[in-house]
């Protein structure tokens, strides 16, 4: 898999799958979650509601897939990052699981390309440098049958610089 780095808005990416940093309720929020639902339109929320009705939301570290509405992508994978609680509550394992489970789901849908935001580094307050290390390490060690390209989309300059250093 080729790994690329971009600074910008993930909703503008031309990839098969965009990953959303959602919450367990799957009913939207601020940050990248709000931006994806605004840009993609109400059909994404309709599917999130159906998933909630079926399985009661999405636990931390897991991922679910919906269509992408008006976005250029084909699908949105909603994953729920851990809330930072000091680092001794399994945060890194849960963050790693977000990346692995999103990649697995993208594989199952035969995606060729996927874009990730910096999961948990906003409202959920995961330290950016540690989150970047987990993200890069997990993606580098994942072997996909179908994904050819992974793009890390950094919204802020601090994350962009951290990823640039790691990559
Ligand atoms: N494109 C790419 N990245 C973005 C965008 C965007 N349009 N908007 C924000 N970001 C970045 C932030 O800069 C941050 O680095 O996404 C990263 C994750 O921040 P949050 O969106 O706050 O996500 P997270 O920390 O995982 O918290 C999840 O926030 O909005 C709620 O519903 C969401 O409750 C959930 C919580």
Descriptive report:
- This protein is α/β, with parallel strands linked by helices and 167 residues long.
- The chain has a single domain, classed as Leucine Aminopeptidase, subunit E, domain 1, CATH 3.40.220.
- It is 39% helix and 20% strand.
- It is built from 5 helices and 6 strands.
- It has a 6-stranded mixed sheet with strand order 1-6-5-2-4-3, sandwiched between helices.
- Helix 4 links the parallel strand 5 and strand 6.
- The structure holds adenosine-5-diphosphoribose.
Quick structural summary:
Helix content is 39%, strand content 20%.
Radius of gyration: 14 Å
Order of helices and strands: EEHHEEHEHEH
Name the ligand types.
adenosine-5-diphosphoribose
Q: How many distinct helices?
A: 5
Determine the structural class based on helices, strands and strand pairing. alpha/beta
Basic shape = globular
Average pLDDT metric = 98
CATH architecture type: 3-Layer(aba) Sandwich
The quaternary structure here is single chain
Overall number of strands? 6
Q: Write down the CATH topology.
A: Leucine Aminopeptidase, subunit E, domain 1
**Low-pLDDT sequence parts:** none
Could you name the CATH class?
Alpha Beta
Number of folding domains? 1
Q: Name the strands of the widest sheet in spatial order.
A: 1-6-5-2-4-3
- Assign a percent range to the helix content: 25-40%
Biggest sheet layout: 6 strands, mixed
CATH homology-level superfamily: Leucine Aminopeptidase, subunit E, domain 1
Proportion of residues in extended strands: 15-25%
